[in-house]
Amino acid sequence: MDHFLYRDSALFAEDVPLSDIAATVGTPAYVYSTATLTRHYHLFKDALEGLPNLVCYAMKSNSNQAVIKALADLGAGMDVVSGGEYARAVAAGVPGDRIVFSGVGKTRGEMELALSGGIRQFNVESEPEMQVLSAVATALGKTAPITIRVNPDVDAKTHEKISTGKSENKFGIPISRAREVYALAASLPGLKIVGIDVHIGSQLTDLAPFESAYEKVVELTHQLRADGHEISRLDLGGGLGIPYTRSNEAPPLPTEYGALIKRVIGDLDVEVEIEPGRLISGNAGVMLTSVIYVKEGEGRDFLILDAAMNDLIRPAMYDAHHDIVPVVEPEPGVVQLPYDIVGPVCETGDTFTRNRPMPPLAPGDLVVFRSAGAYGAVMSSEYNTRPLIPEVLVKGDQFAVIRPRPSFDEMINRDIVPEWL
Ligand code: LLP
Question: Annotated catalytic residue: which of 1, 346, 362, 416?
């Protein structure tokens, strides 16, 4: 249930017809549903009920401040991976003690920013990072709360570009070396160990890799406690997959994921943190776009849209599938035709999908890409000097532009032509 449903043959976002948004804001545009964001957050909270927990939304999936605020107002924490994301979270009103800072390459400047503004914990990924963080914290007269991200060498069985928990990946420290690395952390004056962190990848559609990774973390908790460390938090990362098609996909539900966590963590007496991104924001957003041309090709017809790879890079980058549906619901039994659906950008990679059966469409018709709320707008660019597309948030029968489309002048006036040229 994602609140993008047909009513009387017109596709709505909650109580707003998407055609109204297209008429007001223009296309292409991202449209998000507050009710869906809220629902998804509560799915995790309900699934973890009974365990002390903090759901830290992975802001990288969709970092618009309105989205962050909607979730933070419900009590969500945030998982940030850069100084910029930290600044966004703070600007959206998230208190520092609900922000965890992940990432393999935190700079001194980012550490200073977070230590000065307040931070729940840094998820540290290497010994050099640990040394620098200790020095930065000491210089500021502070102590940095840390977990250490361990790499459990588990195959997440997801796309290779978004798998992170194998020993060949750049993330975390090998779990086999954890005890010596925790000993080093304990010896550094600017750090305070608070727990362990693990994240094995994104869009996982099987619970087994989570289970293997979490079992290793539980074993490590016992060992580290025996070594004298205080392990009071386990950050179990994000990664639970979502259905990208309506028909044949049924990834595990948050309730099943929560039950797994409770089963594996048991009575370990820890606070659990999780960092879901995609499951909260993915199906809470669509990309709304119009057909510019229908072009007859040799053996195939092209649907040329006003959205392109710079607006939604996932198909080009990960061969990702997004359901694409018309805003006017097709009559039952209408004959579907195979289209190659493409954008206007000047490269063949700007192909969203090939041979996709669609009802007949004409220039000006509106279609949406479903499941585009996560890793959509945040990964967009101005390639081909195409303005970043607006973002719109719907709540009930209200909607608001939460990031406007820049004008050409706003876009090109950022360039500076040196006087001496
Ligand atoms: N925590 C950490 C440390 C992460 O690296 C990530 C995602 C998450 C949490 C959130 O994972 P999620 O719950 O959203 O799966 N651009 C790619 C996905 C990259 C994910 C990167 N890390 C895509 O469009 O599929």
Answer: 346
